[in-house]
Amino acid sequence: MNAQASQDAPWGIAVASALILGLVVGIPYYGLPYFYDYFEHPVSQGGFGWSRASIMLGLPIGTLVTLIAGPLFVRRLPPRSCILSGAVVCAFALAGFGVMRGSLAEYYLLWILYMTGWTFAGPLPHQILLSRTFPRSPGSAIAIAYFGISVFGALSVACLARPLTQALGFRAALVFIGASVLLAVPIALRAFPKVAPVRPATPVQPSGEAPLNRAFWLLLIGSTISVAGVAGVTQHLKLIFREAGFVNQALLDQVFGWTIMIMLACGSFGRFAFAWGADRFAKRHVITVAFACMAAAMPLLYFLTPSSSPYLFASIFGFGMSVDFVVVPLLVADYFDAKSMPKVMGIVVPVNTVGQTWFPYLVSLLWTAFGSYSVPLLITFASILAGRFALALLPEHPPDAHPRESVREPVSASVQAAPETVS
Known about the structure:
The chain is mostly helical. It has 2 domains: 7-196, Growth Hormone, Chain: A, CATH 1.20.1250; 207-401 and 412-423, Up-down Bundle (Growth Hormone, Chain: A), CATH 1.20.1250.20. It is built from 19 helices and no strands. The chain has helices at residues 2-31, 36-40, 52-56, 58-66, 69-73, 79-99, 104-121, 123-133, 138-155, 157-168, 170-181, 184-191, 214-243, 249-280, 283-302, 311-321, 324-335, 341-370, 374-392. The longest helix is centred in the middle third of the chain and has 32 residues, at 249-280. The chain is globular, with a radius of gyration of 21 Å. Residues 1-8, 201-208 and 401-417 have low confidence and may be disordered.
């Protein structure tokens, strides 16, 4: 009985990581955009009267300020301590959004505080912890953990932000969401072992430089602009619905909540489907399927009206957008050997993060300039399609310069993942 319990216990660590990542990453990333239109409301209607661009600037500022904190500090600290302290910081930052008094400086400082907590309690320390706890199956453990982001993100609006706002108002809802993140503390204390920080006896091989070849640039450009375009849609989605004619607040809140739930549910299914396909078919064909899904979904959002439903768009778009989170890491493993992969991922992931968080701000500037989402959506869709096209231009036959087993090295733990990169 004890032996069996000891064998089962580690998978409880993966489940605990899923719960914590859902609380720290899933709910805030997909739940906070629900409140953006409330922030935009005039002061007389209980909002802050902020411009759309000012609201969208919070996440990119917080990300840029804390971008290098993960690689510099998280790997030098025990993962359990990182997650505990980071979760508390995230909780206070999210609650702070509910009690702030309308100062944009305060808003941006809270985003910096939240992203600091996210750095220490988000994907990176979980990657390190799970890679060391599951040396033979780190991919499966990390996949379970990331699944929590999708589940909690899907439920964040329909089952949490919306009912809380209806019952208590949006300010109290934000405070409650912040308090709920503190649930991560007892989960981590109960489930996570005290793992020492990574202190390699010899320096990590810098082996050289990331090969700046055609494959590298296509992967960097393609993944960045496609992920950025997806973020441009998801972060503005509720505001797009309002412009499309969903002006009744209750209806807008309801439709947005169900759309996010359907989108992430289909994205979770798509992640498994594309992973299965990438193991059996050429990855360029998998990318083509995702391209077709995205292309089919785009007109459904562009021509959305209150008489139509966004749920078909959510299903198709959610399924297609998940390909980046499966195929791109596999492509890196195909085109670069184990010595080059940390360098390549160390460049690709931070650049993806910058693109993913700053592009929604660009969309808000375009909206301000053109007065509607018509042109910004066209540019966003063009970005998504251009990213898919760039990935499809990769050389047909990747160099077979390294044994497949060498790719099992958990290089992902050396870089920091963007919020939606782990959706």
